[in-house]
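seq/struct pair 1
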Amino acid sequence: MAAPAQISQDELEELREAFAKIDVDSHGHIGTDELNDLFKAANLPLPGYRVREIIQDLTKTGDLHDGKVTFNEFANVVHGLKSTEVAKTFKKAINKKEGIYAVAGTSEQSSSGTQHSYSEEEKVAFVNDDTIVTWVNDTLTQAGKGTISGFKDGSIATSMPVLDLIDAIQPGSIRYDLIKVEDLTEEEKLNNAKYAISMARKIGARVYALPEDLVEVKPKMVMTVFACLMARGMKRV
């Protein structure tokens, strides 16, 4: 099975990097028991039951080879999970229920018919990049703050978009008198980033990125920061 043509070259390279982290012996495949770690390495954490369902599906379709998953098979699974239609369906199906979002439709039940609920972090894992950027910009605009063009936006190096989003989610939480805004040195950018990561965690966002990821504007890691803040922000709804 070939990797899906719809996945961009940049995303394919990111997936290869994640795959290589798990396939440490460079065999070109991983065991099904390592699939959960692989999804985490690819910044796509999934509930355990969902990983088991994927393994069952791969087994039924004959895409497993002696219980091993190849890179192309993994890429196809990721493409299916992050497709635009899945993201739209998932987004429309969100209903708040005691701090957890129950999911309606096909995502609601496992193959065994068991109903599941997703935490905000699990839910955001299914949402595509454009949806996250749209949510971030809508939230920033509503708070009267500047927006971003995407996860490669140069302003992210200053951490201001992240700090503004935190303040939009929890008004008054950011002390802007502690932040250097213009003509920043590399050290000042790093200080802003450290403050941003610290405050994101303080308001309850499960951010695992490093300050350097913001300063260097690493798109994939920047995406995880905004995704975690989106998960935190949606708890206000």
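seq/struct pair 2
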Amino acid sequence: MAINLYKTSTPSTRNGTVDSQVKSNPRNNLIYGQHHCGKGRNARGIITAGHRGGGHKRLYRKIDFRRNEKDIYGRIVTIEYDPNRNAYICLIHYRDGEKRYILHPRGAIIGDTIVSGTEVPIKWEMPYL
């Protein structure tokens, strides 16, 4: 993955990097709003846990953990950051027209082809050191 380094113009931009492989445009049928009404309050609405609440609004991305599209090839279209699980996720376009999010495999880039199944050989790459 290509990482862009930026010239420091203010103290807040010092040591900043941006990953150019990451695109953030979530698909509407795979995301939905979460119901966050607690914010540290009990059933009566009284604050019981201090210093909770606020924060940026987040949409929940539906992740395919089962990977039950067996022996159907898919292509990685986007790599996005998921704020709900502090990780990167990939949008996969399968050949049968279905689109799903999966957790980003280490070393995978946009345009790679993936497949799930029991008889599929495992492609192992050297982890980042």
